[in-house]
Input
Amino acid sequence: MIMVSDELYASFRETGRDLFLTGAISSHGGNMSVRVGERILITRSGSMLGRLTRADILETGINSCPEDEGCSRELVVHRAIYLATDARAIVHAHTVHTIHRSLISDVITALDSESKAILGDVPVVSAEQTIASPEAAELLSAALAEKKVAVLKTHGPFAKGATLEEAFYHVSCLEASAKILDLADSRR
Output
């Protein structure tokens, strides 16, 4: 068992609050996790990320196990990403402009300097089943082997980082870029 330190709990709580306050998620949308060795700390299914309590952070193994009950439905995707990449933290959001861009492009190519420098081109992957599917897990983990963030078409970005804050930065940077792209399109 991992003891959720005050510092780690604060990281979950603050990142969840930031996701909600920035509009990156709805009241009960999105999920986050942190890998600690062969264990994963992940938000509970149906939790309100903007109001996380310690009870909303569940522990499970890097491989399927009985402790999975109650974990976010996206656990299958988080596991695949951890097994295929150097990620130590993952944030999944439902950012509106990023989802919009996923409907019209297979790659999100930034116009703004920050996103170009930090993220480069962001891949959009399509899965028949978008929520909690092994297909989505395989596609996203492959994309995140090379990128900091990838988007599941119609469902939103999954970002990796060394910390939850860094993964959130990748999500928020992409959303800002998608807003700029939408504004540029509206002027045509």
